TrEMBL record:
This is YhaN AAA domain-containing protein. Keywords: Coiled coil. It comes from Bradyrhizobium niftali. Pfam families: AAA_27 (PF13514). Residues 351-376 are annotated as: Disordered. Residues 1-202 form the YhaN AAA domain. Residues 184-214 form a coiled coil.
Amino acid sequence: MRIRKLGLRRYGRFTDAFIDFGERVAGFADLHIVYGPNEAGKSTAMSACTDLIFGILAQSRFNFLHPYATMRIEAEVEISGGIRRFCRIKRPHNSLLDEADNPVPDTLLPGELGGLDRSAYNTMFCLDDETLEAGGESILASKGDLGHLLFSATAGLADLSARLGAVQAETEAFFRPGKRSGGLAELKKNLAALNEERERIDTLATEYARLVIQRDEAAAAYAEAIAQRSRTQARMDEVQSFINALPRLRSLRALRTELSPLARLPVAPSSWGRDLPALTSRQTVLAAQMRSVTETVVALQRELDGLVVNASACALKSRMELLTDLRARYVTAAKDLPDRRLARAEERASFDAARSGVRAGSRATPPLHRRDGISP
């Protein structure tokens, strides 16, 4: 991957600034030196290259002029697919855009570096004042090989000596010539113990065959024992069912003994079984009615027993019977009286009408004269 043009559109102290590295010139080293006074923005441009490839950090320190939402880095890059234009904005995801501002995979540019991550990239290609100072301090504080120290200073690995010391100590703890202790010695002891265990449990082929036969015989005996246990359990369950039935058997025999005197009785019709519920219900109803009637009879009997005979009233029995007959006639006459009155009114009206007709006829008819001149 080669950056042909870097655009600091809105990044750090820059606005619409561009660095054009031009095309690769054949036959010449592709090396560019960016120089300028202090605070000119050289470190800012180097950080812009890193942020272009790996993304702008969540807590970036280059937002002192442009807010996070407006930060933008542009570049024209030569990659394996040709020359393409990209821009990087401040966003958690999909922050790498193409020239049409459409999102492209964030791993596109790091993939062109062979999987190099941000930390390794900074260590190898981003040498600055802080890295140089840390390397110098490592040289002053270290007592190791000077070549290692110089390499750590130039490569940005300020703690290389400490790491080498830790690795050396770990190596000596694992193995030291002439020593019986250490990680390797412990592993050898474990390996010897495992070999002894393997030899102890190792078995000859003939012994193995004998053990296989014994295993098969034991398995067959076990299967037979399981089957026998199942049969025994079934028989035990059957016997237990017989034991549980003994009380009912005794009850059945007692009932048969109780019913034996009734053996000569005729067999009841089969319909009795169907009629029995209705008859039982009817019997219950009749019993209730009988109790009610009995209670009523008893109450009336008590009331009758409590009556006092009046001799004077008994002497009037014949007269009471006559009055009863007369009362019946009176009631009948009272019922017929309206009809008779209505009939009388009708007869009177008919009579009055007839009488009126007779009077009117007598006034309209002239007197009759006999031929002999004598009036009738």
